[in-house]
Amino acid sequence: QVQLVESGGGEVQAGGSLRLSCAASRNIFSFNAVDWYRQAPGKQRELVATITRSGSTNYADSVKGRFTISKDNAKNTVYLQMNTLKPEDTAVYYCRATSWGRGDVYWGQGTQVTVSS
What we know:
This protein is mainly beta. It is built from no helices and eleven strands. Strands 2, 4, 5, 6, 9, 10 and 11 form a seven-stranded mixed beta sheet that branches. A four-stranded antiparallel beta sheet has the order 1-3-8-7, with no helix packed on it. The radius of gyration is 13 Å and the shape is globular.
C-alpha cells in the first residue's frame, strides 16, 4: 500500500508564501502523475497542479504564475511552492498519485492552508 504524507501547511497572511511537501512511501518515478488538489469549506475538491512522470507540469488558471509544482525523485517527494497567497487559496490541500500501468490512485490525508487578509 502506498502512503502519501503531506506537510508544510499553516497560516499565513495574504501575499505570503508556503511550500507544501508530499512524501511518498515508494519511488515517485513509479507514478504516472502526481497532483495537488484542494478543497475549501462547502466547495468541491479542485485540481490545482499536476506533474507527470516526465516532469511536465500543468496548473489551474487560478494559480498560474503564483504556484509551482516540482519533484525530487531522490527524496520521493513532490512540492508545491505557493507564492502571493490570497484568502481564496484557503483550503485543505491534498496530494494524489496515479500509478504507472495499473492506474491505481492514492491520496494523502491533507494539510490545512489558511490565508488571512
